[in-house]
Automatic annotation (TrEMBL):
This is Glycosyl transferase family 2. Residues 6-137 form the Glycosyltransferase 2-like domain. The keyword NADP does not apply. It comes from Paenibacillus curdlanolyticus YK9. InterPro entries: Glyco_trans_2-like, Nucleotide-diphossugar_trans, TPR-like_helical_dom_sf.
Length: 370
């Protein structure tokens, strides 16, 4: 059985740290906590789980802090989390099984990172991250912001998920770091261009975001996953400023970098739906359902676009096209995912009234007689 060191970097995490550590403390062999300047009870909470608590002066560089945490680990493998991450019970069991069975030739294990879920508990946004790595490989973190772990060698794609359950977020932190670096005259490489554009988009600075996404794509040096994501974000930015033609153009541009993804098929379908081109819209929503699923993707995907959303929109399209039975069938598919959704229930009542008027009338008569 392998040994595992859990590494975290923290700052003012008293509201989430105990939850994170409770979810994994009995599985790992060592816990390393690197504190970057907490002023709350974070270190006191951490002390109940480990003596390996280290102070690290914050220098606006996440990779530097994570690399320092990794340098303090002593187990054969290193697992990393953020304080607002946790393992749910099913994933705890899977992690225990992995610990007992992992072959020593494996250098890195990737896991799902579930970032959001709907009211039914279904994951709606997820991607993969390298989570468990062999310490002897001395893998390094790269990037001051939106850092990534550079790995190589023999990898294993596990079905274990880390669940992100943030209670709060410093919305301006990363933007401040990026703009401080720009003010210092730093020239951004492709990855920083992409993530700075993301920060601008998140702050509704859409025109600036568009300019930086374009700069990123023009480098032709970005990861293919980021190229595809940039096309989607460009499309969203153009929609936000009312640039309809570019909204479609950038969604289509994503096809330059790979096969059509469900999210982009839905974007294109929605554009045509708004134009009243219902047959064309239906084609693209059908394509979303046929496109490759995102189970193994390293790109952050909207899982709604490969499950209920295309069905709901196809209901609208086929209703407009006069094919009520197809509309009803697709709405029922959406209802399987979202049984209490207001739009789905409205469609159900509306279509049943048109398709099965006798049954509805008899039901109403029965209700009156009671």
């Amino acid at each position: 059985m392998i040994t595992i060191t859990l590494c975290l970097i923290v700052k003012n995490e008293e509201d989430v740290l105990r939850r994170c550590l409770d979810s994994v403390a009995e599985i790992v062999d060592e816990i390393v906590i690197v504190d970057t300047g907490s002023t709350d009870r974070t270190k006191a909470i951490a002390a109940a789980y480990t003596d390996a608590i280290y102070d690290f002066e914050w220098i606006d560089d996440f990779a530097a802090a994570r690399n320092y945490a990794f340098s303090q680990a002593t187990s054969a493998y290193i697992l990393w989390l953020d304080a607002d991450d946790l393992f749910l019970e099913a994933d705890r069991r899977k992690l225990l099984e992995l610990k007992a069975s992992l072959q020593p030739d494996i250098d890195t294990v990737s896991m799902h990172y579930n970032l959001a879920q709907d009211e039914y508990g279904r994951v709606t946004r997820s991607l993969r991250r390298n989570r468990l790595v062999k310490r002897s490989r001395n893998f390094k973190w790269i990037g001051a912001v939106h850092e990534y772990l550079e790995v190589y060698g023999v990898s294993l794609a596990s079905d274990i998920a880390v669940t992100h359950a943030s209670l709060r977020h410093d919305h301006n932190r990363n933007l401040r770091i990026y703009e401080k670096r720009l003010e210092a005259g730093e020239a951004f490489g492709p990855r920083d261009l992409y993530y700075y554009a993301n920060e601008l988009k998140d702050h509704a600075r859409y025109e600036e975001a568009i300019a930086y996404y374009v700069k990123f794509l023009e480098t032709r040096e970005g990861w293919v996953e980021d190229n595809i994501a940039a096309c989607g974000k460009l499309s969203d930015c153009c929609a936000a400023i009312g640039s309809s033609e570019q909204t479609l153009d950038y969604a289509l541009l994503s096809f330059r970098y790979g096969s059509p993804l469900p999210e982009f098929c839905c974007r294109i379908g929605f554009w045509h739906l708004n134009q009243g081109a219902y047959a064309t819209a239906a084609y693209w929503y059908e394509a979303a359902l046929q496109a490759p699923k995102s189970e193994q993707t390293w790109t952050l995907g909207n899982l709604s676009c490969e499950t209920w959303l295309p069905h709901l929109q196809l209901c609208v399209c086929y209703d407009k096209l006069g094919d009520l039975r197809k509309a009803f069938w697709h709405n029922e598919q959406a209802r399987a995912f979202r049984p209490n959704d207001a739009a789905v229930l409205y469609n159900k009542a509306y279509l049943e009234g048109l398709l099965f008027p006798e049954e509805r009338l008899s039901g109403e008569n029965a209700a009156e007689s009671n």
